[in-house]
């Protein structure tokens, strides 16, 4: 019996094959997995396909193609009852658990978002990334850039493309939890900034009630105006907000300081005892910590007309693989 | 002191004026209100502006333009603390309360969605609407078509445009509540249909945790393939799901029958005691009622390349204003 994470990937591959009208190879399946938020490379997909073959759920068909067997169809039907679509909050918790970053020693794994752009757009994208970082709207100045052919996580960066990895704000939640503070990432949203001052959230989506990442919703609806914030100080940015118990306030503030010293920033409202906070309801006995989203630089790429493929909550990565932008 | 509904509209107008860089007239304000989900016509907007003028929150500026006064700015700041962005579920409850439709006498007000299209696209749109209705994927065969210049609710249909009004599935919730059944519209989502058979929800968003209407999220992300369902029996459609107490099952089923006799349909899973239902979690002691969304015909317009302006949950309308498609 594979672990739940592998199990989910296997089911998703069966689902992809069942939804396809033609036989599919590992590359196509990997692409579709990525589109659905599973960051699995071609090699890893091939490995998973072998596992499915061995169980008799899939079989080879044509040159490198795979199809579902009768048994695979049955397995999928059964799995679908228990493995329902899955809320984003479950995925978030998985990543919080996988965060091993220690701000004091500045080591361990952080959560990253990944964005693919064409090599032709690299200079423009890199310049924007730098501006977002320098203006203090990024989670961290530490990023990774992977060129075509280089491996980023389990993926080779496709020909003609470059991948950016940015620190995801979920890293903050992971560190809080690792240090014994119960944290609940509540809402992903849009904040309004006027003349460099944060005004309030103008839209939010509860992470626990959605199967689509709120950040993907806001970026695909083009609700940000990050470049305007960079140019003129006013506009709309991606942000999120988490709740911690009021009693954990002091230890949380200490951790946020440690994180700051380790170049993990982006918090613009930490543990103020205000309810609602910036227009967002906060539970009684809790306080809110609001931060920018690590997706902001990538949303800015999109605003500038750069074609992007954004994978929010893509993976964990050792902080040593990231380099500080100077 | 105006009622909460008017109060909200007044605040939204102040907000629009504060966010604008230029003076705005009633027409522009009405358009922006519509974009934000308030269905207020030019005339009604003018009436609201007069109320704001009288209180000293706005003043005339230039030819028919309005600007915010210092007092208006203060009022807005104060209001924003209490009048936060607002979740869609609040808006849904407002509309449930305003539903007065009685399926037995076939009279009273139903909730409608509205969609504006160009007159040039009318025939194509009308044909699609008819196909959705005839295939049983609409809430009701009763629709209203308003030509340019005609008044639909408080709006005149703009020149060169036609407005469609379709019955919104929230009408079902309104009728259940009016008859003493506590109902909770939980999720808006996407359902997968294969060979005419509903498979399961593939994505959902909790109405109580979002400030953006889930239906708008799914349509703007182009996640439907309604025309494919019409053509080939397979694809993805908009749907939603509500919970009622298991103990109200019998009276609910009776009401659903009455609704059916009164041409309000679209329910594809009524009170089955299955958990999860079609992949969606249902609370213990509750049962789920799943229905198509009244937005489906309008989403199909979009799929066919027709430029649409969709207002989900636009207003209530007397059922006598609607005409059955034959």
From TrEMBL, chains A, B:
Residues 86-323 form the NrpR regulatory domain. InterPro entries: NRD, NrpR, NrpR_dom_sf, RNase_R_HTH_12, WH_DNA-bd_sf. Pfam families: NRD1_2, WHD_RNase_R. SUPFAM superfamilies: Winged helix' DNA-binding domain. Residues 11-76 form the Ribonuclease R winged-helix domain. This is NrpR transcriptional repressor. It comes from Methanooceanicella nereidis.
């Amino acid at each position: 019996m594979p672990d739940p994470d592998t199990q989910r990937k296997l089911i998703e591959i069966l689902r992809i094959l069942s939804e396809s009208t033609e036989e599919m190879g590992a590359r196509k399946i990997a692409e579709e997995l990525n589109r659905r938020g599973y960051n699995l490379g071609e090699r890893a997909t091939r490995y998973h396909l072998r596992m499915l073959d061995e169980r008799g759920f899939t079989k080879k068909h044509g040159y490198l193609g795979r199809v579902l067997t009768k048994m695979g169809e049955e397995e999928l039907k059964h799995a679908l009852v228990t493995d329902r679509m899955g809320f984003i909050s479950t995925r978030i918790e998985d990543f919080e658990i996988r965060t091993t970053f220690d701000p004091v020693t500045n080591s361990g794994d952080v959560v990253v978002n990944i964005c693919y752009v064409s090599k032709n757009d690299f200079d423009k994208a890199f310049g924007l990334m730098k501006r977002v970082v320098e203006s203090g709207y990024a989670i961290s100045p530490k990023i990774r850039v992977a060129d075509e052919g280089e491996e980023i996580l389990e993926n080779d960066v496709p020909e003609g493309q470059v991948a950016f990895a940015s620190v995801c704000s979920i890293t903050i939640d992971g560190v809080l939890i690792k240090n014994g503070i119960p944290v609940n990432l509540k809402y992903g949203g849009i904040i309004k900034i006027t003349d460099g001052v944060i005004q309030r959230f103008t839209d939010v989506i509860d992470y626990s009630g959605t199967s689509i990442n709120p950040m993907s919703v806001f970026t695909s609806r083009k609700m940000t105006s990050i470049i305007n914030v960079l140019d003129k100080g006013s506009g709309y940015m991606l942000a999120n907000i988490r709740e911690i118990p009021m009693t954990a306030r002091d230890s949380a503030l200490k951790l946020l300081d440690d994180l700051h010293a380790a170049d993990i920033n982006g918090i613009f409202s930490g543990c103020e005892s205000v309810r609602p906070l910036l227009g967002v309801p906060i539970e009684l006995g809790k306080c809110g910590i609001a931060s920018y989203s690590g997706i902001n630089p990538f949303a800015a790429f999109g605003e500038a007309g750069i074609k992007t493929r954004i994978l929010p909550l893509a993976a964990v990565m050792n902080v040593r693989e990231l380099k500080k932008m100077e």
